[in-house]
Amino acid sequence: MAVQYVTASMWEKIEPLLPREHISEGMSNRHALDAIIYVLTENVGWLTLDRKDWEYHGSSIWRRLRRWQDLGVWDQVSPILISELPGLDEPAKERVRTGRRGMDARHYRGWSRKPQHSS
């Protein structure tokens, strides 16, 4: 069963900051935020989010976080989460602040989609 991290008082502060999502997508912002918090605070992989518990695949929830980051929303939401989520250690606070679980493959210098050929 999915964990609910977002309290009513937190949601009152965060909801106005989030963009309205398309109804066809179906996933509420609050549900997505709970899943994002779970991944970042527990330091688990996005693909470990089970549809039976979270209703949506981890990649869908990750895309929602990315959209919020691209819009600059996460920079406003993360300080609220850090100040109001109980018991976060420093690594968890950093993951919440950045919205990243660890090394993002796009930021690894040696990473490339193309096979490396030696000359």
| Shape, principal axes of CA atoms | globular
Gap between N and C termini:
53 Å
Total individual domains = 1
Structural class: mainly alpha
Query: What does the average pLDDT come to?
Result: 82
Report the sheet with the most strands, covering strand number, pairing sense and barrel closure: none
Radius of gyration: 16 Å
Number of DSSP strand runs = 0
Quickly describe the structure.
The chain has 119 residues and is mostly helical. It has helices at 8-14, 29-42, 51-54, 58-70, 74-84, 90-98.
Notable traits:
119 residues, mainly alpha, 0% strand
Characterization of the model:
- The protein is mainly alpha-helical and 119 residues long.
- The protein has one domain.
- 49% of the residues lie in helices and 0% in strands.
- The chain has helices at residues 8-14, 29-42, 51-54, 58-70, 74-84, 90-98.
- The protein is globular and about 30 Å long.
- The termini are far apart.
- The model is unreliable at 103-116 (pLDDT under 50).
List the helices and strands and how they pair.
Layout: H1 8-14, H2 29-42, H3 51-54, H4 58-70, H5 74-84, H6 90-98
Helix pairs in contact: 2-4, 2-6, 5-6
